[in-house]
Amino acid sequence: MSVMLTGASIRYTGEILLLMDIPMREILSRFAIYGELELVQPFGAGHINHTYRSQWNQAGVRARYTHQRINENVFAHPDEVMENIERVTRHIAETLVRDGEGDWSRRTLTVVPSRDGKTWVRDERGGWWRTYLFIEGTHSLETARSPAEARCLGKSVGRFQKLLAGLGEPRLHETIPDFHDMEKRYIRFYEAVAKDACGRTKDAGAEIAFMRKNEKRGAILIRALKDGAIPERICHNDTKMNNILIDDQDGEARCVIDLDTVMPGTSLFDVGDLIRTVTTTAKEDERDLSMVAFDGGLFEALVDGYLSEAREFFLPEETSLIAESGRNITQIMALRFLTDYLEGDHYYQTSRPGHNLDRCRNQIALVESMDAQWRAIMELTAAICERNRPASAVDSPEA
Ligand code: ADP
Ligand code: GN1
Ligand code: MG
């Protein structure tokens, strides 16, 4: 048997692959995968789930799969997460096939069912596992390197939202209730400050002060949604750049992944998270804050790419909040990293002491960079929106 394993959490003892003392081979054998398991290793750089990639010999052909243990600390109802993902991926696949799109199985995630026909498998400790086809010939980015990359990232999310606009009833489950509700997140933040469970507030004085000062504007998007000023739509809710797979050959965005949080929200949550991650050339946890700066050229290409698809459904009320969405989601992330730091790093995977505080500082620096360029950002946004006015507005005589 030629099984190779890498990664600290995996041990190989005799015939059994052990992942934190759970037999991995046994878990994988319960998915409808055929052939001989050759290799399994930790994979990817997500903050939430535990991701692995396996390799199989299927009658002489190599096939690879992605396996994930769903983080139950984050998702209280993994069955509902999987029900959403099942519906969303099926809908996208059916639409792509109907529209005659080639290579469609690299343009959407494909859930591999268990041998008893479910979308998940539960291990002996009650953990929830799922399997997807591994999308070959792609990579994900941690920073955008050119306007061309930024454009294709924006376009892929616009297209993703457009595809999901056609998903019918019932409403998707809210897999994390109040996920982008800044008002509720502030309540939890103040509780964390008051409790100071780990004695860390003393190291985060400036960051706590920043959050206090900017509380009001932090709620702009969620208020607009709650007040009905912008429509509810199905959105991804986690469109950071490394959740979009890029084709190794042509550099185009192939597939939007990490679908755990696809649920009702506003399209602007996704636009904002794109702006947060694509318009700075520093990584999210970069400690050298002089490298964290908003880049107008990347912003222009990103939003232009997004609107080239989204203009079909985007409303003027949404357009007017595009620039604000970037600042808003960046502020939300600063607040979430800071809260997790104060609470003791329970939510995000961290790999060094103070990692969440570093991330928070980085995000604050990005908000400040946007603030410093705000006038230019607004002018740029107006020009991009003018170029991407919906076809109906361009055609109508009064427009
Ligand atoms: P998390 O929720 O922890 O962020 P993701 O679903 O984003 O987990 O997966 C982590 C990483 O694994 C991704 O950034 C991507 O690089 C890789 N990945 C996940 N699913 C696939 C897939 N089906 N094909 C190829 N790569 C994948
Ligand atoms: C998490 O799962 P991942 O790593 O793609 C988080 C996002 C944050 C992001 C910050 C379910 O995303 O909300 O924006 O980290 N996902 C969840 O990097 O909380
Ligand atoms: Mg991810």
Listing every helix as H and every strand as E from the N terminus to the C terminus, the arrangement reads EEEEHEEEHEEEEHHHHHEEEEHHHHHHH
Name of the top-level CATH class of the largest domain: Alpha Beta
CATH topology of the largest domain: Aminoglycoside 3'-phosphotransferase, Chain: A, domain 2
End-to-end distance: 69 Å
> Are there runs of 5+ residues with pLDDT below 50, and where?
1-9, 11-16
Quaternary structure type: single chain
In CATH terms, the superfamily of the largest domain is: Aminoglycoside phosphotransferase (APH), C-terminal lobe
Q: What's the number of structural domains?
A: 2
Question: How many DSSP helices?
Answer: 14
Structural class: alpha+beta
The total beta strand count reads 15
Provide an overview of this structure:
This protein is an alpha+beta fold. It has 2 domains: about 1-135, 2-Layer Sandwich (Phosphorylase Kinase, domain 1); about 145-390, Aminoglycoside phosphotransferase (APH), C-terminal lobe (Aminoglycoside 3'-phosphotransferase, Chain: A, domain 2, Alpha-Beta Complex). The protein is built from 14 helices and 15 strands. The protein has helices at about 25-30, 80-100, 145-165, 180-195, 205-215, 215-220, 220-225, 265-280, 295-310, 315-320, 320-345, 355-370, 375-385, 390-395, and strands at about 5, 10-15, 15-20, 20-25, 35-40, 50-60, 60-70, 110, 120, 130-135, 140, 235, 245, 255, 265. The strands form 4 sheets. Strands 1, 5, 6, 7, 8, 9 and 10 form a 7-stranded mixed beta sheet that branches. Strands 2-3-4 form a 3-stranded antiparallel beta sheet. It has a 3-stranded antiparallel beta sheet with strand order 11-13-14. A hairpin with a 5-residue loop joins strand 9 (about 120) and strand 10 (about 130-135). Helix 3 packs antiparallel against helix 8, helix 3 packs parallel to helix 9 (about 295-310) and helix 4 (about 180-195) packs parallel to helix 11. The longest helix has 22 residues, at about 320-345. The protein is globular and about 60 Å long. Residues about 1-10 and about 10-15 have low confidence and may be disordered. The structure holds adenosine-5'-diphosphate, 2-acetamido-2-deoxy-1-O-phosphono-alpha-D-glucopyranose and magnesium ion (MG). 2-acetamido-2-deoxy-1-O-phosphono-alpha-D-glucopyranose binds near residues 47, 240, 258 and 333. Magnesium ion binds near residues 46 and 243.
